[in-house]
Write a structure and sequence with these properties.
By secondary structure, the chain is α/β, with parallel strands linked by helices. Helix content is 32%, strand content 28%. The longest helix is centred in the C-terminal third of the chain and has 26 residues. The N terminus is likely disordered. Bound molecules: adenine. Adenine binds next to β5, β9, β10 and α6.
């Protein structure tokens, strides 16, 4: 499916734009008044932004929760495409806290059915790396670049630097990475990974199964090292919501 023509092609189909995050703080301030639906222990919010019906959802942390939520967004709420926003731990040396990573593809770093399948390969998909929609990701990249260069998000005495929007591989697993040895091992097994989180690959797998275009954007909250837990908590409370809201506003206004 090509997102470039999606708004026109889909305007008559009633499909919604799905916006998903793991934690409430990651979507704080993103939407005004929404109609709420409770399903499978989750809250789904529906609203209209311009000409678009938007359905938002919080999955909670982890891959099963994310897969369940993405499935409901697509199958129950009729999402035609899906955006995932949130935070991640930085892995590549070029990726700093407060930078943004837009995924080109996602991989389950904790999936290993070898010797039955090559390490990381998703059973049934025939691949380890699940590509995001190029057009949707480009729009998200543009929205993030615009936001970082026109707002003061993330500026502080500790981080007065120029923030960068990266594109590349994001890896996911059911583990909060905060041990330097685990981080090093991850860097060894996935040398081109830019960031690590706990949901993206699960959403990618669901979207691939339904043939739904999707994109994933992560702001770097920590360096996945022994300071990760404290850095993560502070970042999620103070910074994650304003980043998401600024980027999403620009993104949705140009759909
Ligand atoms: N999300 C944000 N930081 C993370 C980390 N260090 N490990 C896994 N997921 C994360």
């Amino acid at each position: 499916m090509n997102f470039a023509n999606a708004p026109e092609a889909r305007s008559g189909t009633g499909k919604s734009v799905a916006v998903m995050a793991a934690l409430p703080q990651e979507l704080r301030g993103c939407f005004g008044l929404q109609t709420e639906t409770h399903l499978a222990g989750r809250v789904f919010g529906e609203c209209t932004v311009g000409a678009h019906r938007v359905v938002s959802a919080l999955s909670g942390m982890g891959k099963v929760s994310a897969a369940l939520t993405a499935t409901l967004l697509i199958d129950h709420f009729d999402a035609g495409w899906l955006i995932f926003l949130g935070v991640a731990g930085g892995l590549a040396p070029t990726v700093q806290r407060h930078d943004v990573v837009v995924a080109t593809d996602l991989l389950h770093h904790d999936l290993d059915a070898s010797p039955l399948l090559p390490r990381f390969q998703v059973p049934g998909l025939g691949t380890a790396r699940m590509a995001t929609d190029a057009s949707l990701s480009e729009r998200l990249y543009q929205a993030a670049s615009h936001h970082l260069h026109t707002s003061s998000a993330g500026n502080s005495t500790r981080h007065p630097k120029v923030r960068t929007v990266h594109r590349g591989l994001i890896v996911s697993g059911d583990q909060f990475i905060r041990n330097p040895d685990v981080r090093s091992e991850l860097r060894k097994t996935c040398p081109d990974a830019l960031a690590v989180e706990m949901e993206g690959a699960a959403v990618a797998q669901v979207c691939a199964s339904f043939n739904i275009p999707f994109a994933v954007l992560r702001t770097i909250s920590d360096d996945a090292n022994d300071e990760a837990a404290g850095d993560f908590q502070a970042f999620v409370e103070e910074v994650a919501g304003p980043y998401s809201a600024g980027i999403l506003e620009h993104f949705l206004s140009r759909l």
